[in-house]
Amino acid sequence: MTTCGAQAQRGAGAGHGSSAGAGAVDAVVVVVPVHDEEELLPRCLEALDAARRALARDVQPAPAVAVVVVLDACSDASERVVRGHPVTLLRTEHACVGAARAAGVEEALELVRPVVAGLDRVWVASTDADSAVPENWLVEQVRLAGQGADLMIGTVRPDPRDLTPAQRAAWTATHTPGIANGHVHGANLGIRGSVYRAAGGYAPAPEHEDVLLVESARRAGARVVASDVCWVLTSGRPVGRTPGGYARYLREDLVSSGAPGQT
Predict the structure, then answer these.
(1) What does the domain layout of the chain look like in residue ranges?
(2) CA 82/CA 79 separation, integer angstroms
(3) In what order do the strands lie in the sheet containing 189-192?
(4) DSSP, res 148
(5) What CATH number labels 2-257?
């Protein structure tokens, strides 16, 4: 494991956007699994940097933040891209997104352990290396946590530059801005640390580890909120890193099915 930049940063003081409340958190950890994403990873990390700055600016006292980037069986220049960003770099050879996410969460929880009273005060946020979170991504999740949410299911939108005209038309026809339909995406997911642990964490699955976690969290009694407020831009590429992921949906189902978009 190699550490790049600050591991956990904590602010102090009072101001607008306070996370005070029964479900308030003292720390936020972000986990990003990476498998050969040197082209899209810069956009991902720059967006996360902006989200961290917004959290420090808009939420007081600002929670501690630790971002762990998991380079899983990478053979490209992804590691070079990571350097220079305030993140912790973790190398794994699982070649399995579920195992990579799980390893990243454990690393991140260990980083913030000295500044939190327990897992109930930690929020675990997940995104993907081919995605770009909005500036309000962490602010909104901390706000929801402060209101008592245990799990946020966020929406994603494919980069329209990656879509064919038919795909763009189908997306526009089936997606209503501002409406969260509850589809689960690892690119935009947040969960309270104690609920993450009660649900058994991310399963070492080659895909759909996000869906499995949400199902387990629901069974554990998690308070779930589906939100479109902090939607995440994600790749609309036709071939993804797993056979049955979002790329398959865009490639095979979006135009042919006419079903509501998986936002």
Answers:
(1) 2-257
(2) 5
(3) 2-4, 87-92, 64-72, 27-34, 122-126, 189-192, 151-158, 224-234, 131-132
(4) T
(5) 3.90.550.10
Please, what's the largest Cα pairwise distance for the chain? 53
Structure letter (DSSP) for residue 83: T
Going by C-alpha positions, the residue among 213, 241, 247, 246 that lies closest to residue 96 is: 241
Q: What tens digit of pLDDT does each residue of 149-207 get?
A: 999 999 998 988 987 888 788 777 777 778 887 889 999 999 999 999 999 999 999 99
**Is residue 56 within 8 Å of residue 62, measured between CB atoms?**
yes
Which token pair is 79? 């590691």
Residue 134, C-beta contacts closer than 8 angstroms, at least 6 positions apart: 47, 51, 230, 231, 232, 233
Give the pLDDT confidence score for residue 55 in this predicted structure.
98
CA distances from 74 to 36, 90, 179 (A): 5, 11, 36
Say which residue the tokens 């007081």 belong to.
60
Rg over CA atoms, the chain:
17
66, two tokens: 């630790």
Average pLDDT over residues 35-59: 97
Please give the model's pTM, rounded to 2 decimal places.
Answer: 0.85
CA distances (Å), origin 144, targets 53, 139, 147, 203, 212: 18, 9, 5, 25, 22
- Residue type for 251, please? R
